[in-house]
Amino acid sequence: MIPFVVLITVLVCFVGYGLWPLATSVLGYLISEQASEAMILMLFWLTMVFIQFVAMWYIAKKKPIGRKFFFYTVWICVFVQGADLLLAAEDEMPLWALADVFIYPALAMWVLYASDAKQYFEQ
Predict the structure, then answer these.
(1) DSSP state, 118?
(2) ∠ CA(55), CA(60), CA(64), 5° rounding?
(3) pLDDT for res 112
(4) What Å distances lie between residue 96 and 22, 25, 61, 85, 99, CA to CA?
(5) Which residues fall within 8 angstroms of residue 82, CB to CB, at 6 or more apart?
(6) What is the pLDDT of residues 46-81, one digit of tens each?
(7) What share of the chain is helix, strand, coil (3-state, %, to 5)?
(8) pLDDT of 100 above 80
């Protein structure tokens, strides 16, 4: 059961904070009139996805360093998305949107560092 929890937690983080922003940036690149800015954003997300993929490989091998690198990149993605939300807000602070961006990685870190799932890396 513990490997299943680790797998689902990491995959949901990977899709939500890696693949989904990469897919939207690729779509933005394809329909954008300013291709250079969209290309920079796409390369940033592609780098984050690659690092997360390598970290997931280490997590699959039960190495704790994979967990550390995975959450480093996830939190970089969270802060970039949070900054984007704050810059896009004109009149009011988007608290619910910010909470939505920050809450799942915090819970995922708790699952992999503080719950019984941390035994996955201690075997």
Answers:
(1) G
(2) 60
(3) 86
(4) 23, 23, 36, 11, 5
(5) 98, 101, 102
(6) 999 999 999 999 999 999 899 999 999 999 999 998
(7) 85, 0, 15
(8) yes
Q: What confidence tens digit (pLDDT) does each residue in 28-38 have?
A: 889 988 888 88
What gap in Å lies between CA 74 and CA 16, rounded to an integer? 9
Q: How many CA atoms lie within 13 A of 17 on its CB side?
A: 29
What one-letter code names the amino acid at 14? F
Alpha-carbon Rg for the chain, nearest whole angstrom, is: 16
- Residue 114, classed as helix, strand or coil, is coil
